[in-house]
Design a protein that fits this description.
Helix content: under 10%
Distance between the termini: 29 Å
Number of strands: 14
CATH class of one domain: Mainly Beta
Number of helices: 1
Oligomer: single chain
Largest sheet: 7 strands, antiparallel
Shape: elongated
CATH topology of one domain: Immunoglobulin-like
Protein backbone atom coordinates (compact mmCIF):
# COMPACT_ATOMS: atom_id res chain seq x y z
CA UNK A 1 0.00 0.00 0.00
CA UNK A 2 1.34 3.44 -0.93
CA UNK A 3 0.56 6.24 1.53
CA UNK A 4 0.59 9.56 -0.34
CA UNK A 5 0.52 12.99 1.33
CA UNK A 6 -2.16 15.42 0.28
CA UNK A 7 -0.77 18.76 -0.88
CA UNK A 8 -2.63 22.01 -1.17
CA UNK A 9 -2.39 25.39 -2.80
CA UNK A 10 -3.55 28.32 -0.68
CA UNK A 11 -4.76 31.73 -1.74
CA UNK A 12 -5.05 34.26 1.13
CA UNK A 13 -7.48 37.18 1.12
CA UNK A 14 -9.61 39.20 3.54
CA UNK A 15 -13.39 38.94 3.45
CA UNK A 16 -15.89 41.81 3.96
CA UNK A 17 -15.60 41.48 7.76
CA UNK A 18 -11.80 41.57 7.87
CA UNK A 19 -11.36 37.84 8.47
CA UNK A 20 -8.32 36.37 6.79
CA UNK A 21 -9.51 33.50 4.59
CA UNK A 22 -7.55 30.73 2.93
CA UNK A 23 -9.00 29.36 -0.33
CA UNK A 24 -7.54 25.86 -0.55
CA UNK A 25 -7.34 23.59 -3.54
CA UNK A 26 -6.16 20.16 -2.43
CA UNK A 27 -4.37 17.91 -4.86
CA UNK A 28 -2.25 14.79 -4.94
CA UNK A 29 0.17 13.24 -7.36
CA UNK A 30 -1.12 10.01 -8.86
CA UNK A 31 1.46 7.34 -9.56
CA UNK A 32 1.41 4.04 -11.38
CA UNK A 33 2.67 0.76 -9.89
CA UNK A 34 6.27 1.68 -10.74
CA UNK A 35 6.06 4.97 -8.83
CA UNK A 36 6.03 7.10 -11.98
CA UNK A 37 3.95 10.30 -11.93
CA UNK A 38 0.97 9.91 -14.27
CA UNK A 39 -1.48 12.66 -13.24
CA UNK A 40 -2.53 15.13 -10.59
CA UNK A 41 -5.97 15.07 -9.03
CA UNK A 42 -7.74 17.97 -7.36
CA UNK A 43 -9.87 17.30 -4.29
CA UNK A 44 -12.19 19.69 -2.45
CA UNK A 45 -11.78 22.75 -4.70
CA UNK A 46 -12.73 26.09 -3.17
CA UNK A 47 -12.69 24.82 0.40
CA UNK A 48 -12.79 27.80 2.77
CA UNK A 49 -11.54 28.02 6.33
CA UNK A 50 -10.60 30.70 8.85
CA UNK A 51 -6.87 31.17 9.27
CA UNK A 52 -5.49 30.45 12.78
CA UNK A 53 -2.05 32.13 12.81
CA UNK A 54 -0.68 30.09 15.74
CA UNK A 55 -1.38 26.78 13.97
CA UNK A 56 0.08 27.62 10.56
CA UNK A 57 3.35 25.69 10.32
CA UNK A 58 3.13 24.98 14.06
CA UNK A 59 3.83 21.26 13.70
CA UNK A 60 6.07 18.95 11.77
CA UNK A 61 4.19 15.77 10.85
CA UNK A 62 6.21 12.58 10.44
CA UNK A 63 4.74 9.34 9.11
CA UNK A 64 7.01 6.45 10.09
CA UNK A 65 6.81 4.82 6.66
CA UNK A 66 5.59 5.76 3.21
CA UNK A 67 4.68 2.18 2.32
CA UNK A 68 3.36 -0.78 4.30
CA UNK A 69 4.57 -4.16 3.11
CA UNK A 70 2.47 -7.13 4.16
CA UNK A 71 5.05 -9.52 2.70
CA UNK A 72 4.02 -12.86 1.23
CA UNK A 73 0.59 -14.03 2.28
CA UNK A 74 -0.78 -17.55 2.11
CA UNK A 75 -3.99 -17.55 0.07
CA UNK A 76 -5.23 -20.61 1.99
CA UNK A 77 -4.59 -18.99 5.39
CA UNK A 78 -6.34 -15.75 4.39
CA UNK A 79 -9.32 -17.68 2.98
CA UNK A 80 -9.46 -19.55 6.31
CA UNK A 81 -9.83 -16.22 8.16
CA UNK A 82 -6.26 -15.20 9.03
CA UNK A 83 -5.87 -11.46 9.69
CA UNK A 84 -2.50 -9.89 8.87
CA UNK A 85 -1.64 -6.65 10.63
CA UNK A 86 1.09 -4.02 10.19
CA UNK A 87 1.38 -0.65 11.86
CA UNK A 88 2.80 2.81 11.32
CA UNK A 89 3.17 5.90 13.49
CA UNK A 90 1.96 9.45 13.01
CA UNK A 91 4.19 11.79 15.04
CA UNK A 92 3.72 15.52 15.49
CA UNK A 93 6.34 17.84 16.94
CA UNK A 94 5.83 21.55 17.55
CA UNK A 95 8.17 23.63 15.41
CA UNK A 96 10.39 26.03 17.32
CA UNK A 97 9.20 29.60 17.09
CA UNK A 98 5.51 28.68 16.83
CA UNK A 99 3.09 30.07 19.41
CA UNK A 100 3.71 28.47 22.78
CA UNK A 101 0.93 27.48 25.13
CA UNK A 102 -1.68 27.01 22.40
CA UNK A 103 -3.61 23.77 22.72
CA UNK A 104 -4.24 21.72 19.62
CA UNK A 105 -6.26 18.64 18.67
CA UNK A 106 -4.92 17.36 15.35
CA UNK A 107 -7.14 15.24 13.13
CA UNK A 108 -6.25 12.94 10.26
CA UNK A 109 -8.43 11.98 7.31
CA UNK A 110 -7.54 8.88 5.31
CA UNK A 111 -8.85 9.08 1.75
CA UNK A 112 -8.80 5.66 0.02
CA UNK A 113 -8.29 5.45 -3.71
CA UNK A 114 -10.06 2.06 -3.81
CA UNK A 115 -13.73 1.29 -3.12
CA UNK A 116 -14.58 1.60 0.58
CA UNK A 117 -17.70 0.98 2.64
CA UNK A 118 -18.35 0.86 6.38
CA UNK A 119 -14.76 1.97 7.07
CA UNK A 120 -13.30 -0.97 5.16
CA UNK A 121 -11.31 -0.65 1.93
CA UNK A 122 -12.14 -3.40 -0.57
CA UNK A 123 -9.22 -4.26 -2.83
CA UNK A 124 -9.52 -5.66 -6.35
CA UNK A 125 -7.82 -8.89 -5.27
CA UNK A 126 -10.63 -9.85 -2.86
CA UNK A 127 -8.90 -8.61 0.30
CA UNK A 128 -10.21 -6.00 2.72
CA UNK A 129 -8.17 -3.39 4.61
CA UNK A 130 -9.15 -1.70 7.88
CA UNK A 131 -7.32 1.04 9.85
CA UNK A 132 -7.42 0.95 13.68
CA UNK A 133 -6.22 3.22 16.46
CA UNK A 134 -4.04 0.90 18.58
CA UNK A 135 -4.56 2.89 21.80
CA UNK A 136 -8.34 2.43 21.74
CA UNK A 137 -8.70 -0.46 19.23
CA UNK A 138 -11.30 1.73 17.47
CA UNK A 139 -11.76 1.43 13.73
CA UNK A 140 -10.76 4.66 11.99
CA UNK A 141 -13.39 5.92 9.56
CA UNK A 142 -12.40 6.43 5.93
CA UNK A 143 -12.82 9.88 4.33
CA UNK A 144 -13.82 11.41 7.70
CA UNK A 145 -11.67 13.37 10.13
CA UNK A 146 -10.42 11.29 13.08
CA UNK A 147 -9.24 12.98 16.29
CA UNK A 148 -5.68 11.93 17.15
CA UNK A 149 -5.84 13.33 20.71
CA UNK A 150 -4.37 16.39 22.42
CA UNK A 151 -0.82 17.56 21.84
CA UNK A 152 1.06 17.19 25.14
CA UNK A 153 4.53 18.61 25.85
CA UNK A 154 4.70 19.89 22.26
CA UNK A 155 4.43 16.40 20.73
CA UNK A 156 2.00 13.63 19.93
CA UNK A 157 2.53 10.09 18.67
CA UNK A 158 -0.28 7.81 17.47
CA UNK A 159 0.17 4.24 16.25
CA UNK A 160 -2.20 3.11 13.51
CA UNK A 161 -2.70 -0.56 12.73
CA UNK A 162 -3.63 -1.65 9.20
CA UNK A 163 -5.42 -5.01 9.09
CA UNK A 164 -5.68 -7.07 5.94
CA UNK A 165 -8.15 -9.94 5.69
CA UNK A 166 -10.57 -11.66 3.35
CA UNK A 167 -13.19 -9.28 2.00
CA UNK A 168 -16.87 -10.19 2.06
CA UNK A 169 -17.99 -8.73 -1.26
CA UNK A 170 -18.25 -12.06 -3.05
CA UNK A 171 -14.86 -11.74 -4.74
CA UNK A 172 -12.45 -14.63 -4.79
CA UNK A 173 -8.96 -13.91 -3.49
CA UNK A 174 -6.51 -13.46 -6.35
CA UNK A 175 -2.86 -14.48 -6.09
CA UNK A 176 -0.05 -12.10 -6.98
CA UNK A 177 1.24 -8.69 -6.03
CA UNK A 178 -1.21 -5.94 -5.08
CA UNK A 179 -1.13 -2.33 -3.98
CA UNK A 180 -3.49 0.33 -2.71
CA UNK A 181 -3.01 4.06 -2.23
CA UNK A 182 -4.45 5.94 0.73
CA UNK A 183 -3.97 9.71 0.91
CA UNK A 184 -3.85 11.39 4.30
CA UNK A 185 -4.83 14.92 5.23
CA UNK A 186 -3.71 16.48 8.53
CA UNK A 187 -5.75 19.22 10.22
CA UNK A 188 -4.82 21.19 13.33
CA UNK A 189 -7.41 22.85 15.59
Amino acid sequence: MQIEPLYFYSNFYKDNYGWEIMDHTYFTSLKNGRGEHIAAASLYPNFFMRDEPCLIDAYKTIISTDAIDFGNLSKNEVEAGKVVSRSFDISLMRNSGSCSGISSSPRVTFIPQDYYENNNIYLENGLMMTFKDTSSNRTIPMAKAYDLGRVSNNKLKKTISVELKKGNKGKNIKSGPFSSTVIYLMEYY
